[in-house]
Every structure is written in structure tokens, then in C-alpha cells.
Amino acid sequence: MSNTPDNPGRVVVVTGAARGIGRAIAERFVADGDRVATLYRGGDLPEGVTGYVADVTDTAAVDAAFSQIEADLGPVEVLVANAGVTRDQLLMRMSDEDFETVIDVNLTGTFRCVRRASKGMIRLRRGRIVLVGSVIGQMGGPGQVNYAASKAALVGMARSISRELGGRGITANVVAPGFVETDMTAALPETTAKGYLASIPAGRFATPEEVAALVAFLGSDIAGYITGTVVHIDGGLGMGH
């Protein structure tokens, strides 16, 4: 799809588009001809992405950012809630702060963005909401009680949104990546990386572009009858769990 005066492209918001998976997702929507904005905390952005500095843990900042996006670009038609953090620690050593921080960013932060974006989608009577979860949300992981809980909860969120807003042409789905080639996985010790690879039937990590392609599909018009589902992209690691 190319931008023309008659067809300027949809308004897409991707949270956390400065790096990793979020960056690849934003780049994919730009390449598809959409007008892409991001809520982010700082850093270099891909070409064609308009940045709005906002912390997803701050309701007023999220609301203000979406209002500015709507004023600058128009109503938001696609939301990709990607921003997230980790604070890994074994259960007995995990602090309240470690748990609460991850929940506030990954889960409540997603809720804040979805709540605000859905207002315009309801008026338009169309919209695509894609929540970036994780295979860990279904499988669990040692030292990741907080992270797994935050990602598992996105499934219930997407399904509730689907039941509430499905009749208004709005879909909500979860993408659950496994291990992806990012700065985080590149920093893993070689023996750790080999151990992870041995558990993946595909025998490799995903590329960010592969995850972005799936998100772009779920954000497209032709995915209008897919909602309330979890789509795994993990090379067979989770086997649909």
C-alpha cells in the first residue's frame, strides 16, 4: 500500500518502537504505507516513525500522547502494545518492587494504552489491537514469576476486549514470540544460548522481522475474523501451550 492524498495510510501506534521487536514492527507498518507513531521513553527511532515521549505507567502521559497523535495524524486504527520490561529473580528473592514494576509496565501499561486507543476505534467502528505477549506467559519460566504473570494476563485482556468490542469491528489478539534475535539474546552466554536452541524444534531463534510480519497480518483488514486468540511464533518451543 502506498500513500496518496486519497489514501494516506492508516494511523498505527506501536509502543516501544525504539528497539528490538517493537522497532521491527514499526518499520514493517511504515513499509506497508501506514502512518506510524510510537509512545516511547527515548532513543533513536526508525525513519518514518513519529515519536511521542510518554511513560506507559503514567495515565495522564498516555492520554496526552494519544490526544496529540490524534491531533497530528488522525484517529488510531491499529494499536500494537509492545512496550515491556523484565526484572527476573527467583521467587524467594523477588521483591514487591520487582513484581509491581513488571506488572505496571507490561500489563497495566498495556491496559492504559488499549483503553485510550479504543475510544477512537469505537467511534470509527473498526480497529485492530495486537498485544505482544510471550511464550513464557503460557509455559512459565524460572525466575520469571512477574514476567510470566504479566504476559499470561494479556490473554484474558484480549479475550475480554474481543467479547466487549467485537461487534464494533474491533479485534484483539495476542502474539506470543519465543526467543527472538535481539540485543538481549545476543548477550546470552554461548552455553545458555545453545541450551535454549536445543529446546526449539526449529533449531534457531526468530528474527524480529518474522514477528513483525505476523503482527502486520493481525493488524490488516483481511484478519478481521481473527479475534481473542493467541498466535505463537516460537519455532515450536511452546507447542501451542
The total of helices stands at 8
SSE series: EHEEHEHEHHEHHHE
What CATH architecture label applies? Answer: 3-Layer(aba) Sandwich
Largest beta sheet, briefly?
7 strands, parallel
Count of separate structural domains: 1
Strand content: 15-25%
Radius of gyration: 17 Å
- Per the CATH scheme, the topology name is Rossmann fold
CATH classification, class level? Alpha Beta
- Overall strand count: 7
For the termini, the CA-CA separation is 35 Å
| Chain-averaged pLDDT | 94
Name the CATH superfamily classification: NAD(P)-binding Rossmann-like Domain
Shape: globular
Description of the molecule:
Helix content is 43%, strand content 15%. The protein is an alpha/beta fold and 241 residues long. The protein has a single domain (11-231), classed as Rossmann fold (3-Layer(aba) Sandwich), CATH 3.40.50.720. Helix 1 (20-31) crosses helix 8 (208-218) and helix 2 packs parallel to helix 3 (96-124). It starts with 10 loop residues before the first strand and ends in an 8-residue tail after the last strand. The mean pLDDT is 94.
Annotation keywords:
globular; Rossmann fold; 8 helices; 7 strands; alpha/beta
Give the helices and strands, then pairings.
Elements: E1 11-14, H1 20-31, E2 35-40, E3 49-53, H2 59-72, E4 78-81, H3 96-124, E5 127-132, H4 136-139, H5 145-165, E6 170-177, H6 183-186, H7 190-198, H8 208-218, E7 230-233
Parallel strand pairs: 1-2, 1-4, 2-3, 4-5, 5-6, 6-7
Helix pairs in contact: 1-8, 2-3, 3-5
